[in-house]
Amino acid sequence: MIAFNKYYNRFNILSVSLVIVSLLLLTFKGLNFGIDFKGGTLIELRSTDSKINVSSLRDNLSQMNLGDVSVKNFGNETDFLIKFENNENKNVIEEIKKNLDKSFGNSFNFRRVENVGPKVSAELLRSGVIAISVALFLMLVYIWIRFEWQFSLGAIVALFHDVIVTLGLFSLLGLEINLSIIAAVLTIVGYSMNDTVVIFDRVRENLRKYSDIKIFELTNISINETLSRTLITSITTLLALLSIFFFGGEVLKGFSLAMIFGVIFGTYSSIYIANTVLVRLNVSQKTVLREDKN
Amino acid sequence: MLYFSKLRIIFITLISLLFIIFALSNLFNFDNKILNKKINLGLDLQGGSYLLLEIDNDPVIEQKLQNLTVTIRNFFKEKNVRITNFKLSNQTLSFTSDENSKQTILDEFVSEESELNPYYQRFKSHQLDIVEENNFFKVSFSKQGIINLKTSSQDQALEIVRRRIDEIGTNEPNILKRGNDRILVELPGLDDPMRIKSLLGKTANLTFRFVTNDTEGSFGAEKLEFEDGTEEAIVSKRIILSGENLLDAQPRMDTENNETVVTFSLDRVGAKRFGKATSTGIGKRLAIVLDGKVISAPVIRDTIATGSGQISGGFTFQSATDLALLLRSGALPAPLNIIEERTVGPDLGQDSINAGMIALLIGFILVILYIFVKYKIFGIITNIALILNLFILIGILTIFEATLTLPGIAGIILTVGMAVDANVLIFERIKEELKSEKNNLIAFDSGYTKSRTAILDANITTLLAAIILFFMGSGPIKGFSLTLGIGIFTTLFTVYFIARLLTVLYVSKNKEKEGLI
After folding, report:
1. Closest CB to A229 among B193, B337, B428
2. pLDDT tens for each residue of B121-162
3. Is A201 in Cβ contact with B457 (below 8 Å)?
4. Rounded to whole angstroms, how far apart are CA atoms B376 and A164?
5. Which residue, among B347, B472, B488, would best test binding to A if mutated, counting the most A CBs under 10 Å from its CB?
6. What is the total count of domains within chain B?
7. Is the same domain home to B354 and B261?
8. CATH number for the domain harbouring residue B26
9. How far is Cα B430 from Cα A206, in angstroms, rounded to an integer?
């Protein structure tokens, strides 16, 4: 049996610091919102001429008065991603196409064009925030119905930890937040909850079984009993996610990366956060039996 | 938990077979109505354009209030009520009257039988709101009035958008209302979205009006620019003909001048008016105005009584074709703005399909190998369930002809990763039970029973997340939540029916064997 409980305090301090750092990052550095949430235009180009590079493309576009243009490679040397804030010009894509064809001689293929107006991006951001809030709220309701309040609190603290730290990491690395990241965050919420609930289920079962074991020891027993399941499921999920990350194409990179972070944090938090909340609230057999009577 | 009746086994086999057949029907072309179903590929996979259009209703509101000015004036003139100082600003019409007429005016506006201000019985609201202060009146559209106006302009705009897209002839366009002032257009497999965008972006309000000698700013005339920006002209506001009078419009090569023109034919009313205008106006210039810009302003040389004519204006064949198309399909009630556009080229779509399939295959193989190494014989059972899970999931998507997007494929891969969770929970539990229980059958039975709540909890939490995503998400993300959500049900089915059935068959043959799992 591994003595997970020996490190409860140390990891709690680590998690609290991680959450604080994440919140600071989110407040002061903020998130790198993509055009879905900020509005603007995105163009994915593929060139047939290998001599064209990011700087020649950037020089060309900067003469077009598009404002702040970002140009970078996307996946490989001949694919480019161009992003700029929305200017009100309706035919901007057509003009860029004409300009590029003139300067580089028809060597570009427009693979993807996305244009999100300011009104739509504000709506998407709002509905994304609502979606995550509703998800957290529903999880809260579900866990509140299923478990005693101490357990609910533990699960919710773990959940917030996972979401905040994942977003903090995105802020730190400057990774782009777009619609698929919202999907990833929601799936993380589901996954983290799932992981916590399985361990809690066991804690409650053991609480009923043993009256003489303190919660500090009892959580450790429960973690160990469910450990192989926790690991196997995390590994298979990570195998699936890594395969999306490496082979699923550029579009799914951000999504799978967020999920990979989320699964790792989710597994960690269900061991080191959810359980320590139970320990700190001094949950005992009475807590469970009282509920059973009701 | 370990008993299966014969009937049940047959039922499970049939269901599985059914879904497998549907899943496979994606690969073959069956000449059969039921088996002909296929999964739809989302725009991100097959390439195409997604456009969200917003109707700009402000000009319509202004126009309606402008027309109301005349109506109000005439209406109260008959009743001998004097109204002065009409002014229109900020979508509010204001005017003044005297103390004696005040009540007459207010009564007219708040009466449920009012001719000026229609009353919507259903919504208990008038079309217009009126406020009065010191004989100064302010009239504006009521909340319900605005809603009705938006709904009706959305209906009209939808019809025109549909006609324009049908004229271009793209395959299976999807044109839907969103809210009360938006229209969603999905155009699969479109190569050149720019043309569609420029066609949808034009109101196509065509008018024929005389060029006058009045000065700019005088009542009833306005200064308009030419389309090519080379010239300006003072044009009368009086409309001789409008696009509504057109029956047909076609591009044509005018062999005389070697120029592309748009020929048109008029309906009876239009032909009559056109004949009259061209007979009285010989020598004058007739401006052809499209969306506030003059296309051309030819001098009238002869009376045209045939009800047909032609528009020239330095067109290329493409621009003449487009103008004819716009004129045939009619004018939009209000300008449309494209507020969101997402276009994916067909080759990127194909790349995404390939990448998604490779990721699915590799993820699947990795998971299967890992599970086999971990559980041996029970790993094989889990893997059979996992493969069937994939087939059933694809089969369900096929039956409902659901739309598969790239995030949808990610959802399937994720399902593969998470689907083994339930079986892992069960097998780990059985292992624990076997430590204290020597009878295999009893240990397996209690393993299944005791793991049930955890499995249920785990799947409900994921399902909740998927449902929220489905209702809040848009386009591709919806596809993700769809596969993730359906995946939960197929997982539970394969775990509790297929994997359990195989487990039962194996265990009942090896009742006495030690270290079974």
Report:
1. B428
2. 888 899 999 998 888 999 999 999 999 999 999 999 999 999
3. yes
4. 39
5. B472
6. 3
7. no
8. 1.20.1640.10
9. 17
Å between A236 CA and nearest CA of chain B: 5
Contacts of B473 in chain A (CB under 8 A): 131, 179, 182-183
Residues on chain B touching A46 (C-beta within 8 angstroms): 347
- Please give the Cα distance from B405 to B480 (Å, whole number): 7
Verify that B65 and B29 share a domain, yes or no: no
User: Which of A116, A149, A176 corresponds to the end of one domain?
Assistant: A116
Range of the domain at B375: 6-42+347-509
State how far the Cα of A234 lies from the Cα of A266, in Å rounded to an integer: 9
Query: If you search the block for the tokens 């998470």, which residue do you land on?
Result: B418
Q: Is B352–A249 a contact, with Cβ atoms under 8 angstroms apart?
A: yes
**Taking CB atoms and an 8 Å cutoff, what residues of chain A touch B466?**
190
- Please indicate, yes or no, if residue B517 is contained in any of the structural domains: no
Token pair recorded at residue B81: 């009520």
CA distance B490 to B466: 14
Judge: B340–A182 Cβ closer than 8 Å, yes or no.
no
CB contact under 8 Å between B432 and A225, yes or no, is yes
- Global pTM reads 0.85
Local structure of residue A252 (DSSP, 8 states): G
* Number of domains into which chain A is organized: 2
pLDDT digit string, tens, across residues B399-423: 998 989 999 998 998 898 888 999 9
**What would the pLDDT profile of B3-23 be if each residue is shown by its tens digit?**
788 899 999 999 999 999 999
Rounded Cα gap, residues B125 and B119, in angstroms: 6
